[in-house]
Amino acid sequence: MISAHLIAAARPNFMKVAPLYHALAASDWCRPVLVHTGQHYDSNMSGAFLDDLGLPAPDHHLGVGSGSHAEQTAGVMVAYESILRDTPPDWVVVVGDVNSTLACSIAAKKLCLPVAHLEAGLRSGDRTMPEEINRVVTDAISDLYWTPSPDADENLLREGVAPEKIDRVGNFMIDSFELMRPRIEATRPRERFDLGDRPFAVVTLHRPSNVDRAESLGRLVAELRRIADGIDLVFPVHPRTRQRLDAFGLAADLAAHDSIHLIDPLGYVDFMGLVRESTMVVTDSGGIQEETTYLGIPCLTLRNTTERPITVTVGSNRLVKPEDLAESVDKVMSGAWAKGRRPDLWDGHTAERAAASLKRHAGA
Ligand code: UD1
To answer: Which residue in 83, 123, 250, 261 has the most C-beta neighbors within 10 A?
Structure first.
């Protein structure tokens, strides 16, 4: 029996790790060991996700918390290296593109342990995004690459990754959605947020490029107020964004609009229950571009680039500039938005394929 560390750190990691954790826990050849770096620590940014997704308390909690990029990355490296020295696993599975992904892959590789990167090969082409640096470095040193789409395979091949190390397995988040579907469908977001039977949009914003400067965040607030004249907005506010709205004196402006519902971040089940009932989503998230594509819900992404181009070429996602937001909302409301279709292998069986891939590569 081999062991594999599964690293979870920030909100978007939990729903990718959970299906693989369950698949390995049910196997007779691999023992999954859950490592939580503590990058996200508020209960509604991490604890609620563990509960919602049926994950146990982590085997190791590094408790690293917030800080500058260097502080956070270095903190995770130091804490994780000591766990690796005490109880080295046979494999380390890192997830996505957060600072902990980079930190744990470097710590593991320096101890010559094999690393599998879950959600490998995504590229926005924008190296001002911290996540892009994390993706490029992690993919330069990993041993096994699980990709969600053909564009990811192409990126890796172009960067010199050997084809036999790449396994296109699909999208893990869709597995989580299907695993939790009964509970997601049982939520009652309209009652909870007092929305009646009106159409509504879900809004999420947290990218530094959108929220860290008063000018860009102020402009987005003005555009959100404008579209809220025509449709209710339910906006679970990320802690980073909450801090910036308060610091720039913009929170009152948003809250003053009758149709804007500012709420705390939601757990996984409640959030997907809300998205599922929505008419559209306005976001700068990565994962939500994929979840909306799977559900065929129009997604208006407030970014200049996406590392998930298949959600645009195949799915229901479009990149939208702030000044074009109102026009895009009108397009959705008039039924002129392309619904798209589900990409291949986004079918709820990704974790099974990844587990089989790990078994093969580990010789287990
Ligand atoms: C991180 C990821 C980003 C991901 C996002 C999802 C990196 C570089 N960024 O960004 O890719 O899309 O998570 O949420 O890894 N905070 C809290 N409570 C928490 C977590 C954070 O209050 O539980 C506050 C911190 O004090 C900090 C801010 O939110 O000031 C940002 O947190 P941080 O983890 O540094 O980055 P995110 O913006 O969440």
So the answer is: 123
Q: Is the pLDDT of residue 339 over 90?
A: no
Residues 167 and 198 in one domain: no
213 inside domain:
yes
> Is pLDDT above 90 for 101?
yes
Assess whether 273 and 150 both reside in one domain: no
Arithmetic mean of pLDDT over the chain: 97
Please tell me the pTM assigned to this model.
Answer: 0.97
Give per-residue pLDDT as tens, 66-91. Answer: 999 999 999 999 999 999 999 999 99
Residue with tokens 């994950």: 55
Sheet containing strand 60-61, strands side by side: 60-61, 30-36, 2-8, 91-95, 115-118, 144-147, 166-168
Q: Does residue 206 have its Cβ closer than 6 Å to ligand 1?
A: yes
40 Cα: distance to centroid of ligand 1 (angstroms): 6
The CA distance from 145 to 348, in Å, is 19
Atom of ligand 1 nearest to the CA of 242: 29
Look at ligand 1, atom 19, and give the residue with the nearest C-alpha: 40
Q: Which residue range forms the structural domain that includes residue 95?
A: 2-171+346-362
Question: Does the active-site annotation cover 206?
Answer: yes
- The total number of structural domains that make up the chain: 2
Q: Does a structural domain hold residue 178?
A: no
**pLDDT higher than threshold 90 for residue 296:** yes
